[in-house]
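I am writing to request your help with a piece of structural work I have in hand. The matter concerns a single protein, recorded as an amino acid sequence and a row of backbone structure tokens. Could you please explain, in whatever detail you think fit, how the structure tokens follow from the sequence? Thank you for your consideration; the sequence and its tokens are set out here:
>
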Amino acid sequence: MTGNAVETAGLGRRYGKNWALRDCTLQLPAGRIAALVGPNGAGKSTLLHLMVGLLQPSAGTVTVFGDSPAGSLAHVGFVAQDTPLYRDFSPTELIELGRRLNRSFDVALAKERLAHLGIAMDRAVGKMSGGQRAQVALTLAFAKRPRLLLLDEPVASLDPLARREFLQSLMGGVADEGTTVLLSSHLLGDLERVCDYLIVLNHSQVQVVGGVDELIADHRVLIGPADIEAHGLTVVQERRTNRQATLLVRGYDPNVTPIDPQWTVHDVNLEDLVLAYLANEGAFSGPVGVRP
């Protein structure tokens, strides 16, 4: 699958004088499973709502598979943060509703998936556990057979076992259908296991965007004596004590930029990278989508 599932240019949404999202420019390649990360109030839910057409931009543009959100709605599945379902409806009734509202709705897929999960088809979803409701909501979204699936904090209220089962179920469905996924969550450990693309929002703006492997490969942690510097590298985050300096840097290539041999070089993970950029809002330039 080629091309971009989502493109935004200067996208913004304002409420009065306050911007919930501002100057958001990014591309989400089709076929990726993308993590959308940021602190509360960063604009994550606003961005998802703009993509699905529940909000209209105050500035800029957003396209989904080259069309407006309204024009592409038939190809988009959305599970909102509170997994809104008609609480008095059973899964059987929700599946019938989905069939009536969506031409491409796959009734057999929905029934088979819920049966595999052991979810009672005749029980009101309002009487189910949070994990079961999340699985019903995800099943309804999958059964629409979307090309793009947007998930807003779908596992926030689940216990660790239910989160693992939900994410395993998500990965299985995505692998079968080739769906592009944008998953908003604070749970960086979960995201690292399932996502191959990263978008970081902070203070209503995009701070980092790019492939996870490329971003991690371009960053290293340097640890050394407190009084030495890392010349020729972009320092993302710096922590110094009386005895030791710890730097997260990007652009490190030992063949291009030799460093003081007193530094020891360590790999980073997704959590290291995200937390460093959220802590430091300075200007960073360079490849792999880091915001200049």
About this structure: Helices lie at 44-52, 91-101, 107-117, 130-143, 160-177, 188-194, 212-217, 270-279. The two ends are 29 Å apart (CA to CA). The mean pLDDT is 87. The longest strand covers residues 4-15.
